[in-house]
Specification:
Largest sheet: 7 strands, mixed
Helix content: under 10%
Number of strands: 11
Structural class: mainly beta
Distance between the termini: 40 Å
Radius of gyration: 13 Å
Strand content: over 45%
Order of helices and strands: EEEEEEEEEEE
Length: about 120
């Protein structure tokens, strides 16, 4: 079992930056593929970025070059640095954990979710 707690969301103007954090409890954090998803009102939840336990990263096309995912295994924390934010980045952002990347092989999220943190970008 792992529990995930996100923080760092807020209101920011277009072009601004935010850094999201996701702290994980439980053991074996380093064995999880960690991901950030987001869901905007009326839209489906989508993968924003992920990082495997080996350090491989994946990004949605819409955030490439603007967002960076990073992890600190010693601190059991994953981060999402978001730069050049746009109004269309407004969404509830969720942290996700996939043990041994088992679900990501089929393109599915992992079993563990945080409660979400709201990001609102004003124009």
């Amino acid at each position: 079992q792992v529990q995930l707690v996100e923080s760092g969301g807020g209101l920011v103007q277009s072009g601004g930056s935010l850094r999201l954090s996701c702290a994980a409890s439980g053991r074996l954090f380093s064995l999880f593929l960690m991901g950030w998803y987001r869901q905007a009102p009326g839209k489906q939840r989508e993968l924003v970025a992920s990082m495997s336990n080996g350090g491989s990263t994946t990004y949605a096309d819409s955030v490439k070059g603007r967002f960076t995912i990073a992890r600190d295994n010693a601190a059991s924390t994953v981060y999402l640095q978001m730069n050049s934010l746009k109004p269309e980045d407004t969404a509830l952002y969720y942290c996700n954990a996939d043990y041994l990347s088992r679900r990501s092989i089929s393109g599915a999220p992992g079993d563990y979710w945080g409660q979400g943190t709201q990001v609102t970008v004003s124009s």
